[in-house]
Amino acid sequence: MALFLGSCGFGVTLGAPGLGQDGAMREALIRLLEPEVAALGCELVELEFHPHGGGGLLRLYIDRTGDAAGGVTVEDCEAVSRRVSATLDVADPIPGGYTLEVSSPGFDRPLRTRAHFERYTGDRVRIESLVPREGRRRWTGKLVAVGASGVTLEVDGQPVELALNEIKTARLVPEFGTRRE
Q1: Residue 150 DSSP code
Q2: Whole-number percent of the chain with pLDDT over 70
Q3: Residue 94 banded pLDDT, cuts 50, 70, 90
Q4: Hey, which residues does 64 pair with through a beta bridge?
Q5: How many CB atoms lie within 10 A of CB 4?
Q6: Within 13 Å and on the Cβ side, how many CA atoms surround 81?
Q7: Which of 115, 64, 82, 80 is nearest to 14 (CA)?
Q8: Cα–Cα distance between 136 and 31 in angstroms, integer?
Q9: Averaged pLDDT for residues 153-179
Q10: Every domain range in the chain assigned CATH 3.30.300.70
Q11: Cβ-contact 123, 107 below 8 angstroms
Q12: Among 3, 110, 117, 162, which is 20 to 30 Å from 171 by CA?
C-alpha cells in the first residue's frame, strides 16, 4: 500500500479502472462510505472516480460537521482515508487498482444534496445540467431558493429553476472581494 499526501489530500493506493462516473456505482459507493465518514465527525461532500491507464483515482471531498466545523485538517483526511480504505478492502466494490484520495472541498466546493444547496442559499453557484435547456447547459448566478425537488438561481436578473435530478454538477463560485488595480 503506497501512501501519498495530496492537496489536503491523504491517500492510499488500492486495488479499478472501468468504474467511470457510472451513476449506480457512484450512488452505491456514496451509500457505503457516507456512514464511515460520518462516524469520524465529517461529511462526505462529494465522490468522484476518474479511470486512467494503469488504474484510476477515487477522490472523496470531506468537510467537518457540527461543533467540529471549521476546516478539514490533514489528520481528518488521514483518519477518513484509513477508515474508508478498510471499508473498501472488505466490501471490494471496485475491481482492479486505483488510488484513494481524501481532500477538503475547497473554496469552490461541490454541492450535491438539497442540504448543501440550503446551506449556501444566497451565494453564487455554477451549475451544469445533464441535458441542455434552450440550448444551454451551464448557469452561474445567485442561489435564491431551494425547494423539495429543485433550486432557483437568479441569472442575469432572470429566475432559472432546475430540478435536483437534472443537475450534473454544482459548485460554489468563490468571491474574494474587489480587485485592486
Answers
A1: E
A2: 82
A3: confident
A4: 42
A5: 12
A6: 28
A7: 82
A8: 31
A9: 90
A10: 3-103
A11: no
A12: 3
Three-class secondary structure of residue 151 per DSSP: strand
- Sign for the pseudo-dihedral over CA of 72, 69, 171, 50: positive
Q: What is the assigned CATH class of domain 114-172?
A: mainly beta
Residue ranges of alpha helices (H) inside 44-140 are 74-91, 114-119
- Distance separating alpha carbons of residues 65 and 41, to the nearest angstrom: 6
- CATH class of the 3-103 domain in this structure: alpha beta
Answer whether 35's CB lies under 8 Å from 10's CB. Answer: no
CA-CA distance, 129 to 136, in Å (whole number)?
A: 8
Q: Give the contacts of 61 (CB within 8 A, at least 6 positions apart).
A: 44, 45, 46, 47, 48, 103, 104, 105, 106, 109, 110
The pLDDT assigned to 179 comes to: 53
φ, ψ of residue 164 to 5 degrees: the values are -60, -35
